[in-house]
Amino acid sequence: MKTIIVVGNGMVGYKFCEKFAATQESKNFKVIVFGEEPRPAYDRVHLSEFFENQDAKALEMAPAEWYKENGIDLVVDERVSDIQRETKTIITAKNRVLNYDYLVLATGSSAFVPPIKGVEKEGVFVYRTIEDLEGMLGYAAKLKEKNPNARAAVLGGGLLGLEAGKAVMDMGLEPHIVEFAPKLMPRQLDARSSKVLQLKLESIGLNIHLSKATNQILGDSTITGMEFGEDDVLDVEMLVVSAGIRPRDELGKTSGLEMGVRGGIVVDNKMQTSDKSIFAIGEVALYNQMIYGLVAPGYDMAGIAVNQIIGKVDELMPAEIDMSTKLKLIGVDVASFGEPFMPASKGHSVIFENKTQHLYKRINVSLDGKSLLGGILVGDASDYNMLHQVFLNGMAIPEDAAQLILPATEGGAFGSALDLPDEAQICSCENVSKGQICGAIKDGSCEDLAGVISSTKASTSCGGCKPMVTDLVNETLKSLGKTVKNVICEHFEYSRQELYGIIKAKKLTSFNEVLDTCGEGHGCETCKPLVSSIFASLYNDTPNKEDVTQDTNDKFLANIQRNGTYSVVPRIAGGEVTPEDLIVLGQIGSKYNLYTKITGGARIDFFGAELNDLPAIWKELIAAGFESGHAYGKSLRTVKSCVGSTWCRYGLDESITFAIELENRYKGLRSPHKIKGGVSGCIRECAEARGKDFGIIAVEGGWNLYVGGNGGATPRHAQLLAEKIDNETVIKYLDRYLIYYIQTAAPLMRTAAWLDKLEGGIEQLKKVVIEDSLNIVEDLENEMQFLVDAYECEWKQAIENEETEKRFQHFVNSDDRDDNLVFVPLRDQKMPELWKN
Amino acid sequence: MDTLLLKYKSVKEEEVKVWFKAAPISAFPKDGGACVKYKNLQIAVFNFSRLNKWYACQNLSPEKQENVLSRGMLGDHKGIPKIACPLHKKTFSLETGENLNADLAPIATYPVKIEGENVYIGFSE
Lengths: 837, 125
Description:
Chain A is α/β, with parallel strands linked by helices.
């Protein structure tokens, strides 16, 4: 078995491991990886995201276990300090000596710190590693304690410098960018696009200083400013140096490998150094007299080195390397591809500039006007993927090249992504072609976008090509005659909204009737409850009518809990309950030995009821004047309320009274998902109404009505639908809003997600609900009034019908109970024993 | 706990030694199910009337070992009749007992016959 030692565990070093582990031959090799940082390789391209979430794990390329699973020894926090080429050994900083058959140098680069006087002062940082960032964060926090308006400068207006600018801005410091050249991103942008970018960045708060040569860093031991000329000083309390990179090539130097004049380890197109057993890849490698500071060429180099080592010696690095880039800088799209700057002798440029919108687009076209040579996009890079493909594949361009960049016309100038040749490289980071993406669908190995992404890895690195991959997958599915639309399940080729329309128009009333009219097969756990819910919304059919097509909760009018017992929740509208009623509840809970808790919706929940006991419990509840709380249904749950002006010294209106009225109006209303409401008596918002599907808040002069709020996994504040309206208008708008939601939402879609998806959002909803733009509000109101009038307590129905009681027997041939139920004590109550698996 | 699962073993029609008279047909809802007690076993029995067929399987869900399958929902997946567990919608073929949407162990299935107005389940002991 041969040993490969990889020195460096950055993005490129990791990519070498990933590509190597994927080969058949990898089992014949032992791979050992050394990283000097304390953690496994992470995504440096997205380093500035670390500021947003402070989560180093989220940036990881792969967790430490990945290396183990693939038989790779990962050694972190240990630098390789020397190479002995004669004996093919390496020595680490911890004085370990290891033999190698192949050595792969992926040591990357370090930040280049120009030799400016005073650059060693406290408060000067480089921008390269998570540790650098943590240092900056700590320092910035201290600065801000002393001076909330502290300023920080970034030395360098290139790609990384601007990222660093965003980082210091996110830290709450006043950001200044200092660049030596007369333009920003001098390698990628021309003077005009730099100007547009500068305007945009200034508009969001970055201060830009161009053509500034820094003479010295001011301050005693700590930085207080930067001096450019005699009277030209910028006061700053922190400085981040981002003036370029320098290859980490010390090992090459000390071991006598051939080096470039200005650094970098020289490699050939096999990624081999002057020693055939030693490879260099990524930013330490000098190829074509160039250091390539981008991820994509680094990944390609890793692939070449893998192939060379396993014997695929014909795999060589191409002579020309595509340096096209697209990135989002501080929320601004910036892209350049091919030859961004082109001498007039080689072709013509077509330029579109709109400074009011911070937009700049330039394409360079050959003299004969037939091919695209390169270009620059600032402000809107949505055309980048397509332009880049046209350039890479030498595709024909329209006679009037301006069509490629002019604001979109009908159909666009490009046509379909499917027109690209199969070899077109769609994902340049992972080197995935159009043929591979479409092929994965065509050969049947993948069925959807998620499958294609996980099998080809396309779009998993920078993600820039994701829209194009999505288009390709959808177009390919369409070309194969597969529908991409959201159908309910294999039994219905319709969306929920379409099926709702069909059932309503054809007045269908049973599940089998619906299935025989417009479906196929025999239904399933997805379509049966959905159709039942539509029946309930249209005809107010309760689950008692056709119980076999109901979800288990609706079938037994109770929420199934994890041991197969049920919970019982009577309605306590608005959370208002008399002491006498509380006593009755206590007696019933005690009689049936139920675990009892107050819910988040301000009512009482009994747990641990056995199926057989449910009818008896409900008989007693109903006799005491309670009714179903519909806690088990995709339906209105509660309308939560504060005490409002009834009791509260700040209250502006009677929120409890209104909450009770609304809860009683909409109780039993079945919908695509559960619905919750809230009413607050003043803007202190004690009922948390804006976290609900509808929320009403009393203000001077009426109620403000908010819709589409949510708690749960994706909390969302409800949005304002109408202001200062009276009780009657609130009800009118709510009727319209709720029925419109019920008619048009997808299955199991809460109002927040529905409002997000609604084209035009809240403004469109206002048009429909308030201005009646669709001319439907009368129908909406009538449908709601029908449902309100037709309401019946479904538990009352159930206990009054002797037939339905059969449903609640655990055994059909015995009065016995489920004898496997085991409860254990919990505080003064009980709970089901824990699951064993 | 696994002993609970071990109580249930599929029975083929030719292995039946006892045809247990469970209940009248009318006790089972159309296109729905109910649970039958036989000795110390709980058997879910389904009246798949759209297919004009009857099926029986263990009532015990192999996922969390709760006796709930008879309360699940009937359906089909590409023509295979199936039952969806009410706890987490794990689905099982009613013909082979195979889990259709995860890697759970298969459930045991039993033969059913209808004689006169009654439903019989076949057991090997």
